[in-house]
Amino acid sequence: MINKDQYLAAMRHEANVCQHLFGKIPEGTWDYRPTDGQRSTIELLRYLPHNLGSIPETVVSGDWKGIGPKMQRTKEMPADAFCAEIDAQYDRLVKLFAGLSEDDFQTRQATMPDGRTMALGPALLMFGLSFMTAYKMQLFLYIKSNGVPNMGTADCWRGVDTQPKK
């Protein structure tokens, strides 16, 4: 099982990749959405950082009714505040984890939105790290859909520029 430090390192990595991808978003594509009903790029940027802080805080507290007000904080966030919000939400995660023991992380029960319970560590993997990874991929695909050349696996999974093939 993953421990607290490994979880924090994985979340920092995902945060760094998202910040790298942000720098690839073409000007004028903030309102891009693949189809009606999907988030636009700016809506995705406003939601994505919450997977680092607000959502893990909710998993730990079990107060799923409290997630809405936390999400309101970024409802009108300008795109250029994305990287700072990623860092702020990650700082919230670090602070949250400072109050948890390794035993809490491994064995404490967390209540999911549907009322099920599971150990806190797996709950955070499900409602934090997996969400962060999925929304990172969505951001990557939005950027690719907008015709950004020379983007590939390294951009999405390592947060570094993909090198042109020789």
What does this structure look like?
- Helix content is 57%, strand content 4%.
- The model has no long low-confidence stretch (mean pLDDT 95).
- It has helices at residues 4-22, 41-47, 54-61, 67-72, 82-98, 102-107, 120-145, 153-158; strands at 109-111, 117-119.
- The termini are far apart.
- It is mainly alpha-helical and 166 residues long.
- The chain has 8 helices and 2 strands; from the N terminus they run ααααααββαα.
- A two-stranded antiparallel sheet has the order 1-2.
- It has one domain (4-158): dinb family like domain (Four Helix Bundle (Hemerythrin (Met), subunit A), Up-down Bundle).
- A hairpin with a 5-residue loop joins strand 1 and strand 2 (117-119).
State the fourth-level CATH superfamily.
Answer: dinb family like domain
Order of SSEs = HHHHHHEEHH
Contiguous helical run count: 8
Q: How many DSSP E strands?
A: 2
List the domain count as a whole number: 1
Average of per-residue pLDDT values? 95
Strand content: under 5%
* Main sheet attributes: strand count, strand direction, barrel closure: 2 strands, antiparallel
User: At the third CATH level, what is the topology name?
Assistant: Four Helix Bundle (Hemerythrin (Met), subunit A)
Per-chain topology:
Elements: H1 4-22, H2 41-47, H3 54-61, H4 67-72, H5 82-98, H6 102-107, E1 109-111, E2 117-119, H7 120-145, H8 153-158
Antiparallel strand pairs: 1-2
Helix pairs in contact: 1-5, 1-7, 3-7
